[in-house]
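Researcher: I'd like a candidate sequence for this fold, 161 residues long. If you have to choose between options at a position, lean toward the conservative one.
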């Protein structure tokens, strides 16, 4: 069995803001929403909206003040594979959307280049491009000015406008 991502569920503070974030950053399509009509409310369904991205989605649930999430857990993050020819476009998109990021970064012992950023609620996200060999990886590291993870790490927390 080789499971694939079906959806990732996040608890968010501002549903509209988060739907726009995932729609814009991942070129998503706003899908079904639940918890808004009387039938959903009487069934106890929480308010949430799905943003579809290819063959998976982000299911965004409105935060229950009595049960807040803990999105900043040190190693809790979600990585999304991008093609090696998409690194520049990913960097440009984050810059265009004024989303702070950390990267490009590389990690010893791999041929990946990563870009780290956060969503509006602090969930840590990563775009990761895996190069086919050490030589092409080294050339891209140099071209992009990639640094090793941990050294010179920038603050990429979401800042309220």
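Model: Candidate sequence:
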């Amino acid at each position: 069995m080789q499971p694939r991502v079906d959806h990732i569920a996040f608890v968010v503070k501002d549903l509209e803001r988060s739907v726009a974030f995932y729609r814009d950053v991942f070129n998503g399509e706003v899908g079904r929403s639940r918890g808004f009509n009387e039938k959903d409310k009487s069934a106890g369904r929480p308010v949430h909206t799905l943003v579809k991205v290819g063959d998976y989605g982000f299911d965004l649930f409105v935060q229950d003040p009595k049960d807040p999430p803990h999105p900043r857990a040190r190693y809790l993050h979600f990585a999304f594979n991008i093609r090696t020819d998409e690194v520049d476009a990913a960097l440009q998109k984050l810059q265009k959307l004024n989303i702070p990021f950390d990267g490009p970064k590389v990690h010893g012992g791999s041929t990946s280049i990563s870009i780290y950023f956060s969503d509006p609620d602090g969930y840590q996200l990563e775009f990761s491009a895996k190069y086919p060999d050490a030589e092409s990886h080294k050339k891209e590291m140099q071209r992009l000015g990639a640094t090793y993870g941990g050294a010179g790490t920038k603050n990429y927390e979401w800042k309220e406008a």
